[in-house]
Automatic annotation (TrEMBL):
It comes from Smallanthus sonchifolius. This is Uncharacterized protein.
Length: 457
């Protein structure tokens, strides 16, 4: 099973020269050196631990973290607590109580997270995370993955990049798809809360592949699409409007044929998707109107006007937008929409509408009137439509028309599917005629050659 590779700057290597010479360290770091020896032969993805010390790696970690946790309690108390924890860990190992052992170790490790060196923490959590290889029961494995990932993500402000690194290593150790999904969701939450999203955003390119691997229920799909879109929404410097809209529409697409109570959950994000579409300067085609999650807003008391705005941007021209703005300017401003940017986008949308509705050519005068611009602005706006690949056309300056050969559809609904079906039928018929003509010519040619052969004899 292909491991997820989602870490970029600062997280691409799991270990970098863990083994250090003990004589080069101060006395306080000798214990740290011994701990590093335990995990120094771990592979680059933290999947294998080969003990190199006399004590079992698990027991060594229990002892190391317990000593650090109880160091301030005094020797007598510390010694007693450390011995008790080590004994409990041994009992768990003998009895095969791996979930209890993981709980014991992660609790101690979490207590020393802010105190220990990062290299020590990597080693500690390598050994703890390797416990997921022990359970034979899938239920126990899932509970262990849930316990570890939740605990690791619980303090997002304490070394968040390191915590994220540990979570990704835990992900790679797991083979159960749903356990992997659970760890990934905790990684998303940690990245968001700890403000280290730049390390996990590159993984969004792999979401479609991961979804096939995870085989999720509808609710889980909603959770991950919403989590990803929220991250992209908050960190626009790392993504484009197209990426954000892609995950928002994936989220909304999961709402189909649901009861009204479930559909209610999608209303806020449906309205947000509409606003993001209107704002996006380079997104002109997005099939939103037919989506049930969007359509429910048409008669909604809170979002009906937002739906009306979408309808204008997807099916109407500039004059409809200007009429809407005249009575709803405060609403647009409340959503952060800039009037001039909306006009610019609607002008391009209007050119597309003219190109799709006219008979292959559009007079300059019609473009001028529709876009409400001056004569000398017609050609620059047509050029903009061409450069954004909304229309494919030529400008006939002599006759003051543009000749359209192709244009982008603003929406792709039943009418567009019917038109495509008719074009394919025509194309199929033309191909059939060509094949028939070729076959007829072949027969004629063969007959001619045969007659020539008889004439020679």
């Amino acid at each position: 099973m292909e491991n997820i590779t989602i870490l970029l700057t600062g997280l691409s290597r799991v270990f970098a020269s863990l083994a250090r010479l003990s004589y080069a360290l101060p006395l306080r770091d000798r214990a740290s050196f011994r701990l590093q020896r335990v995990a120094s032969t771990t592979t680059a993805t933290m999947t294998t631990v080969v003990p190199t010390s006399e004590e079992d790696p698990v027991l060594y970690v229990v002892r190391f973290t317990a000593e650090m946790s109880w160091a301030e309690a005094g020797p007598e108390v510390a010694e007693q607590q450390v011995a008790s924890l080590c004994l409990e860990a041994q009992e768990c190992m003998i009895a095969g109580r791996w979930l209890d052992l993981a709980s014991l170790m992660i609790t101690s490790a979490d207590l020393v997270f802010s105190k220990a060196l990062d290299t020590d923490l990597e080693c500690i959590f390598t050994i703890i995370c390797n416990l997921v290889k022990k359970p034979e029961s899938l239920d126990e494995l899932f509970e262990m993955a849930k316990l570890l990932s939740t605990k690791i993500a619980q303090q997002p402000n304490d070394k968040p990049a390191l915590r994220l690194k540990i979570l990704i290593n835990l992900y790679n150790l797991l083979e159960n798809p749903y356990s992997r999904f659970l760890v990934y969701m905790n990684a998303l939450k940690l990245a968001m809360d700890g403000k280290v999203t730049e390390h996990i955003i590159p993984s969004f390119k792999m979401i479609d592949t991961l979804l096939k691997e995870w085989d999720l229920r509808v609710q889980d799909q909603r959770d991950i699409f919403l989590a990803v879109s929220n991250i992209l929404k908050e960190h626009k410097s790392f993504s484009s409007p197209k990426e954000t809209l892609k995950f928002l529409t994936k989220y909304l697409a999961t709402f189909s044929g649901e009861d009204s109570q479930v559909m209610e959950e999608a209303k806020e994000e449906a309205a947000h998707t509409i606003i993001e579409f209107v704002k996006a300067p380079d997104v002109f085609q997005l099939d939103l109107l037919e989506m049930p999650a969007i359509a429910q807003l048409e008669n909604d008391t809170k979002y009906a006007l937002v739906y009306q705005l979408l309808k204008i941007f997807q099916t109407q021209r500039l004059d409809a937008y200007l009429d809407f703005y005249a009575t709803n300017s405060a609403l647009l401003k409340s959503y952060g929409l800039v009037h001039e940017e909306c006009i610019a986008k609607m002008r391009l949308m209007s050119i597309v509408d003219l190109a799709s509705n006219e008979s292959g050519q559009i007079p300059y005068s019609l473009i001028k009137d529709t876009l409400k611009i001056e004569d000398d602005e017609v050609e620059p706006w047509v050029v903009k439509a061409i450069t954004t690949k909304l229309v494919d056309c030529k400008m006939d300056q002599m006759n003051q028309v543009i000749r359209v050969s192709h244009c982008t559809e603003r929406v792709f609904g039943p009418r567009q599917w019917q038109a495509l079906r008719e074009k394919l039928a025509t194309w199929s018929g033309n191909i059939a005629n060509v094949i028939t003509t070729i076959q007829a010519n072949k027969v004629t040619e063969e007959g001619t050659q045969a007659m020539q052969g008889l004439a020679i004899h």
